[in-house]
Amino acid sequence: LFPGVRQAQWLTKTKLVEGLPPAVQGIVDNPAHGLQELEERAKHAVSHARLWDTAEVAPRREKYCPVLFENLIHICRLMSGKYPSLSKRMLARNCRIAATWERESILLQIRGLSGILMNSMTPIPPVASKEEILATKEHVLETFYPIAPTIDLQEVNVYKELNDTGQCFADGYPYSHPHTLFFLESANVRTDRFRPEQLRAKMLMFAFGNALAKAKALHGNDPKVLEQPVVVQSVGTDGQLFQFMVFQLNTTDLVSNDGVKNLVWIDSDQNLYEKAQCVPEVKKRVVTKPAGISGFQPDTFKKFLALYLHGTV
Amino acid sequence: MAALGVWRLLQPGRRWFSETVPVAPSPPSSPLYPPVVASVTAKSKAAKSRRLQRFKQRVHAAATVEEKLRLYGKLQRPKYTVYPQTFALNADRWYRSFTKTVLVPGMPPRAAAAKPPVAAAGTTPEGGKAPEAGAEAPGAVEVPQAAKTPGPAAGAAPYLDMGELRSLACDALLQESFYQNKKRPFLYRDQDHTPGPFLTQLVSTLAAFLSGRNPLLAASSLDLNPEVNYYWHHGEEVVVHGHRKGRVDPVRFQIDDNPHLQIRVPKQLPEVVPLESDLGDVPVIDHKPSKLPLFKKQYENKVFIGSKVADPCCYGHTQFHLLPDKLKRERFMRERLEDQIEVVYRSNGIASLFAWTAAQAMYQGFWSEADVTRPFVSQAVVTDGKYFAFFCYQLNTLALTAETIKNNPRKNICWGTDSKPLYDVVEDGNVKGFNDEVLLHLVRFLLNRPKEL
Question: What superkingdom does the record give (chain A) (predicted)?
Fold first, then answer.
């Protein structure tokens, strides 16, 4: 619905911070990681996905969105030649997420396919300092009086309260910490795709669900403030626009409206490139737009890579 | 009047004085008459050959590779569709005759000589691998003794940590088959459920792990489920029915392949043996291809390696093929066709690799009238999830049409192994009977690179 992220914030008791957290921004700005040389490769990855991948003239979004994602992940994974601990990551596709929590006497539950999940053996260290966490106590969650916060949510009779990281993984799974969730909006028709605002809300809800399930698995089902906050990242894209999000779960005490809140950093609507021209546009026998990728923004790719490297660097 | 008569006698053309040296006519600056050649539009053999010449001239003179490919596949006629993954009996013999390929069992000699030294328990580890080798020592005790190679004398190449690689492979396998809870597999879609994702995970993590060692991998491009197509002519036949009945036509073939995974690189792999080597015989089959069974269809003549000509990664490194449910081993055992199991792997390897290498050669501008000047080498791994077979192909010639094959001594070569299991069974979160040799083979394939790098 219209204030997608605001509603999600109320439901998950979260405070929003614009932009990426300083830890991730530090990785982006750090020249030691050699992010400049990867620009060329990122440009090739985009060209391959948008222009060269198919024997037809132009690939469709269902094809190029996953291909672009795979190419970017391939470039990120190749960094494990430089940072060997990056090989301790595993991608899992089509995992189902299920998490339940109570919010001011309303029982909420999130279930569904949560896109592509990347797990790692080691958890991401908390991004916000203790002072920032305590400062969220003063923050007041905005309400949408007179609209009930549960508007547009499906009311369902729940017989079993499930709480698992998707119940995706059996016990003893070595890569037990959810690291990043990837959402690809690849439907061909525009109305089937989520709009950016809704996509951000979906990312927030699923990141929260994963973090909550992990926290309950680690610390038990009692609602309390966590000493070791759980951090889960999330990236959503439709093939051109990227939304980056870092979510930190500080508390599982979600019944009341005050106390420590959870934190989320959102960097929204980052364009990776302006336009991908498959066939040169010719007006009156003069080439106005040559074929190729125009308006490539390397910063978006750097943020993608920084989110990938976060936690091991 | 007498003067007039003499004048007329002395007109040019009458030379009856013997002293006159006939003046050689000065060479004309341009021929007086156009060259006498066969007609273009007549219904005669000379006219047909003239039309062919003009077509070849057009393709030779094409400005860009895309234009060349467009002209090469412009004329559409019914052609045989060759399927790399086929249940046809003894398909690999037929495919070898279509593509003029020699099958050499085992692996090419240079792969055996360049084996990277492997850290075995007990040998003194070198350099940075020391802490990992030490930590893995309790786990590495089961490393088979056959993997011990003559130690540091093999050169400065650092040791490959088998324990690390094995744990990566086992983790991928366990995740897909055991840890991740998935729904039951769809009917006859078992391969998409477990072996498919396992292969993707394994190759991507191994490629990323080995990219530090192989700079070619660091610049590579990974395709998931790409398309590879190739169109060629081989041999001649007489048209059987229709308005073109009785004419002699080349036999046309088209391969449309979908490997599970493909690695493309910007630099070519080095040649295995020189261009003109002869390592065996190509089988000659006297029957029509439709006896295989192979069926004709007419559609677009595509030549495609997985991405368009503009892509910098235009050479192929390794392909990974997953055999579908229709061709699983149990089915062959049930029908008492055990010897055909290997045929399935071989025919897949030969057909897919021929299509890929030939399409790569066409992307560089070579075609059947302009034969390759350097050999094109690619590798492939064919698997059904548990059993792996490795193939290496060297394309030496593209000239397979009826006229160009007459004086062409070159043959394409394919090295291939039999299928071996990677593991025995997965039980309770443990992989039993893991075979290190197969993993080592896979790693060697991934580490293959040109000598300069």
Answer: Eukaryota
The answer to whether the Cβ–Cβ distance between B180 and A169 falls below 8 Å is: yes
Least Cα separation, residue A119 to chain B (angstroms): 11
Domain membership of residue A7 as a residue range: 3-47+55-276+295-309
Largest CA distance in chain A: 71
pTM attached to this predicted model: 0.84
Residue numbers in B near A51 (CB within 8 A) = 308, 310
Of the candidate ranges B3-17, B166-180, B191-205, B431-445, the one whose mean pLDDT is the lowest: B3-17
Chain A neighbors of B229, CB-CB under 8 A: 55
Model pLDDT for residues A38-66, shown as the tens digit of each residue: 888 889 999 999 999 888 888 888 889 98
**Cβ neighbours of A82 in B, within 8 Å:** 212
Whether residue A287 is contained in a domain is answered as no
Please determine, for residue B144, whether its predicted confidence score (pLDDT) is greater than 50. no
Confidence of residue B127 (pLDDT cuts 50, 70, 90): very low
Contact: B218, A93; criterion CB under 8 Å = no
The DSSP annotation for A96-113 comes to EEEEEEEETTEEEEEEEE
Tell me the C-alpha distance between A89 and A94, whole Å: 16
Grade residue B213 by pLDDT with cuts at 50, 70 and 90.
Answer: confident
Task: In whole angstroms, give the CA distance from residue B100 to residue B409.
Answer: 10
- Inter-chain touch A53–B223, beta carbons under 8 Å: yes
Of B179, B209, B307, the CB nearest to A48: B307
How far are the Cα atoms of A169, A234, A246, B299 from residue A230, in angstroms, in the given order?
18, 13, 11, 56
Q: Is residue A165 part of a domain?
A: yes
**How many domains are there within chain A?**
1
How many angstroms separate the CA atoms of B129 and B131, rounded? 6
Is residue A290 in a domain?
Answer: no
Instruction: Give the number of beta-carbon pairs within 8 Å between A and B.
Output: 94
Name the amino acid, one letter, at A33.
Answer: H
For residue range B349-405, list pLDDT tens digits in order.
Answer: 999 999 999 999 999 999 999 999 999 999 999 999 889 999 999 999 999 999 999
Q: What is the pLDDT of residues B260-309, one digit of tens each?
A: 999 999 999 998 899 988 899 999 999 999 999 999 999 999 999 999 99
Sequence-distant contacts of B342-346: CB under 8 A, at least 24 apart: B342/B389, B342/B418, B342/B419, B343/B89, B343/B90, B343/B91, B343/B92, B344/B85, B344/B86, B344/B87, B344/B91, B345/B382, B345/B389, B345/B416, B345/B418, B345/B419, B346/B92, B346/B103, B346/B389, B346/B391, B346/B416
CA closest to A59 among chain B residues: B307
Give the separation between CA B274 and CA B411, rounded to whole angstroms.
11
A192 within some domain: yes
Distance CA A48, CA B266 (A): 13
pLDDT at residue B9 is higher than 70: no
Burial B214-253 (b: 16+ CB within 10 A, else e): bebbbbbbbbbbbbbbbbbbbbeeeeeeeeeeeeeebbbb
Q: Which residues of A touch B205 (CB under 8 A)?
A: 77, 87, 90
